[in-house]
Design a protein that fits this description.
29% helix; four-stranded mixed sheet; 205 residues; Chloramphenicol Acetyltransferase
Length: 205
């Protein structure tokens, strides 16, 4: 604890921790020009060709939309286990709601989220487990946001639009398809009697 406060700069703290082992991560052998994926191209997971073909068939765009495939981390293993164990809802589902002054502001927000997804591999990652000897995480090259526009009841009164969205997408019943990247979903709706737009989002990240 003394060392932590005596060395507030991260690189100094790391140097003070003593011996450490450098981890060498194998280079990604799947390129944008790849027309097939073989077991030799996946150094971080042990899969048969049949299992790889099953993964490729599950990804929209096939080989051309697969950036990498590797095993799950221990935390991801736990997320998948509890997701499969639950019969309703999902214990790891994070839900939030926002309101926007108009549709243009909402569209700009969603475009910004898409840019973040485009930049970060983990946000373009899906889980595949059915028919595999061990679950895999698959990084998609392109993962467009899933945005559902819904129509709310007009006579609900002030504040009822947000409540209706909460009821429709109650996390105690709503489940996310872990096989589709990105692992976030959006529902949008114009607030009844207003120019405002409401956004409901859920994610497992």
């Amino acid at each position: 604890m003394r060392t932590l406060f005596a060395r507030p700069v991260l690189c100094d703290l790391a140097a003070s921790l003593g011996s450490h082992h450098e981890v060498v991560v194998p280079a990604n052998r799947i390129s944008e020009e790849s027309t097939a994926i073989t077991p030799q191209m996946l150094p971080l997971i042990d899969l048969t060709q049949e299992e790889i073909d099953r993964i490729v068939a599950a990804v929209p765009g096939g080989v051309g939309n697969i950036q990498d495939i590797y095993g799950l981390s221990p935390l991801q293993d736990g997320i998948l286990f509890h997701h499969l164990l639950a019969t309703e809802g999902d214990p790891y589902l994070l839900v939030s709601q926002m309101a926007f002054a108009d549709r243009d502001v909402l569209d700009r927000y969603l475009a910004a989220v898409q840019q973040v997804v485009d930049r970060h591999d983990i946000l373009r990652t899906a889980f595949v487990w059915q028919g595999l000897s061990s679950p895999a995480q698959v990084v998609w090259r392109k993962a467009p946001l899933d945005v559902l526009e819904v129509e709310l009841e007009e006579d609900g009164g002030p504040g009822c639009g947000a409540e209706e969205l909460r009821r429709r997408f109650d996390p105690r019943q709503y489940r996310l398809d872990l096989g589709r990247a990105p692992l976030m979903r959006f529902a949008i709706a114009r607030e009844p009697g207003s120019e405002r737009w409401l956004l409901w989002s859920c994610s497992i990240i």
